[in-house]
Amino acid sequence: MMLATLVALAAPAAPAPPQETRRDWAVFAERLHDPALGTLEGALVTIANGKIVAVVGGARPSKDALRVATLTPGLVDASVRIDAGPTSVEQSREVTPELRVEPTLDVFDRAWERQLRHGVTTAFAAPPDWNVVGGLGVVLKTGGAPSIEGRVVKRDAALRGAIGTQPSQRNHPMFGRPSDFYSRRPTTRMGVEWEWRKALWDAAASAQDPARAFPGSEVLVRALKGELPVVIQAWGTQDVRTAVFLKEECVREGLGTLRLVIDAGAEAWREPALLVRTGTPVVLPPFTAEGRTADNAFLPWNAAKVLHDAGVPVALSAHGGAFEGQLAIQAGRAMRGGLPFDAALAAVTSLPAQILGVDGRVGSLAPGKDADLVMWSGPPFEASSGVVGVMLEGALVVDPRPAQ
Amino acid sequence: MIALFATATLALAGAQAPNASEVLAVHARLVLTGEGPALENGTILIQDGKILAVGKEVRVPQGARELRHDGVASAGMIALHGTPGLAPPAQSTQQTFVFFGPEGHPQGAHPHEGGTHAEDTGHEPEPPAADEPGQDRADPLALDEAAAAAAQSYAAGDASGDTTRTVLPEARVAWGFDPAHSAFDAAARAGVTSLVITPAPKGLVAGQSAVVKTAGGRVLKESAQLAIGLREDAYEQNSFPTSYAGGLAELERRFAEPTGAFEDAKEGRIGVLFETSTRQDVLRAAALAKKHGLKGAVNGAELAGEVAAPLREAGLAVVVGPFGPGISGRALKSIVALAQAGVPFGFGLDAPRESVDALRFSAAACVRAGLDRDVAWSALSARAAEIAGVSDRVGRLARGLDADVVLWSGHPLDLASRVEAVLVDGLLVAGGAR
Fold it and tell me: Chain A closest CA to B240's CA: distance in Å?
């Protein structure tokens, strides 16, 4: 007791413990789970300069290795929704494909660190859905460099927009004639859909006739050429259908082939055939206790299983939730709904990485990839297991070793 | 001593319209010149409103009026951010030009504004009581509320309170402030002889700040800085831009092919004042400044010192404060970190919302947190003048500069020290009545 008091008193004067700056490690895990390698017993991961050098199974723990119970790749959230709120999306126009979310993000937002501590090492940030075509999103690490710029994994990773009621919410004048752009803007689902369609048709026309170019038309042209994924928020069945039909219309009319991704597709499970037909992956929103989500969409516990069984690539997201809403818990809930462990692991690692085009760097533990690791106390995604350690590009940001 | 001093200053007070070539010699126990070490038993020679000489061995010409002060003499202080006559930020939606005190015509302001104001309020304003220096006028809080009310009732439909444009680069507060506002007089009497007055910190480009001599509210520099809003509240809910994305894209466009004030800023003819609140806002300012070669300062971010490295790299200065005793230790440390990183900084005043005493308190609190006292004093004087772009006129006691001199009972960063007299352009504007 006395000693503890003395230590407490001395603490402020004592120099801070040296920051762990190593980027070279040997990590031994009793069990390793990876979407590409499967499950390895007695895995030794060698890391040099922040990159993975080798992963071998059936190894013996070396004396200098960091020992943990379970290891997985760092988690990837394809819809992290950490932004500056309304100031992250320009609402004076409905279609702003040329604007980037990146300069609107706050590197000092504590939400990034919370994600990191819960095992999410890579995330896709996008303009929030208060207009129709919000702009360009960015894939970034949740920690590391002290600037957003320094954390970027892939700039302009996808064009982001929404279908449904959110872009038209609050656009009705309370009474009288419309007086500002909130009442000029779409007030219905069909109005939102029209904005998308007009933007895509006008962009296709601008590709033929440069005189018809408009701000951001070049971004839409890239999307029509399939060079840029188009992530569309669509919670309800009708909005999922609208997005898919839009893609099919573009193909039919010769405008181009969108690389469509449905985000927050709570009711995508009602239309798996449409999604398979068009090769459209789905990012599910976080599960809720009663299944109710936005836009009156119903998300059952087995939504991920139904989509997975139908052959739809499905990723999970926590929408920036921490604590009980964290991404690992979403994987556990999807498993509770019947999704096999391997699919659940892929849904929070390799699959979102593929969707965002960053699977060359993150999402699995192959040599040459970033050393982003999550260390668990037991089987991942089980309610009884927790994240005990996190490594980001070889830097041990959460140390699994008991305090000295 | 005080009696002697009082006699001398009273005699001076009678010399408000002095003989043009009369020389005044101020002898003080300690002279803070603002360059090099303080002078013990120094002398300041003043003629025609300018400083002729400063030193320990200055030869006083025959016939000069001499003033002996058993205390400290320094240059007048310079506050970097003030909005006298503006409504508080919560209510001032682009009241950029409405610099009204409650006491009447904004002298020197646009004639239209003064006239309309008098009609609107429906009473004949009292003339400003400029002939009663030592006397407090009214509760500053009450003044502020009245100003806010005046600005609010005045705003609707009036040409001076622009509510439709978020980019007003050519607007200048120098054209529309109230020189008779009591905040100026209060500042002068407290030893703050120059004040940077700024457009309300709203809007993407709110206009241009000005440097004003607080005594009489005379404009020292009409176009000091271009004010750029990077705070969240620079973005409107119902007009472009509503977002950082839109706002930054607009600024990129303006600086890519700059004209007018944007060109002046890019060419370094005027500074830029970035209105910020968070560290990320500061990083945005630093990136913008670096990209377009802008020079200037960031204001409003309490923790700017935690991102000192990018600020130094961008060559930006910082306006800190004002704050009261509630300031956090972390915020104070961040100011000390600015000094350690070599980022220049000065203190804002945000008059009349903040009492003028907050200025000295802010600097003294920084000293308590470990800031070097000379650096703190420089931030109130010489360094502040550099940041405001007026170091060729004010901020130090040196030959050729304006004779803005404050006579203190002790060191100005000792909060127990009193202002005993204030000279501006060589004329007594406060003190001597005690």
Answer: 5
β-bridge partners, A374:
A72, A390
Q: Do the beta carbons of residue A125 and residue A82 sit within 8 Å?
A: yes
Query: Are the beta carbons of B324 and B302 closer than 8 angstroms?
Result: no
Query: Is B239 touching A (CB cutoff 8 A)?
Result: yes
Question: Who's near B113: CB < 8 A, 6+ residues apart?
Answer: B97, B98, B106, B160, B176
Q: Parallel, antiparallel, or unpaired for β A395-398 and B345-347?
A: unpaired
The gap between the terminal CA atoms of chain B, to the nearest Å, is 12
Are residues B180 and B103 in contact, defined by beta-carbon separation less than 8 angstroms?
A: yes
Q: Would you give the DSSP letter of residue A45?
A: E
Strands, sheet with A387-392, edge to edge from the N-terminal-most edge strand: A51-56, A38-48, A25-34, A66-73, A373-376, A387-392, A395-398
- As for the ipTM of the complex, it is 0.82
Cβ proximity of A125 and A80 under 8 Å: yes
Judge whether A252 and A221 are in contact, CB under 8 Å: no
- Using 50, 70 and 90 to split pLDDT, how confident is the model at B156? very low
Q: What span, in angstroms and rounded, lies between the C-alpha atoms of B194 and B77?
A: 7
Nearest CA distance, A147 vs chain B (angstrom): 8
Residue A118 pLDDT greater than 80, yes or no: yes
Which one of A96, A104, A133 would you mutate to disrupt binding with B, by most B Cβ within 10 Å of its Cβ? A104
Q: Which residue has the tokens 């009545």?
A: B433
pTM for the model:
0.81
CA–CA gap between residue A58 and residue A277 (Å, rounded): 42
Residue B235 near chain A (CB below 8 Å): yes
Do residues B80 and B152 make contact, with C-beta atoms less than 8 angstroms apart? no
Facing residue for B283 by CB, picked from A99, A101, A147: A147
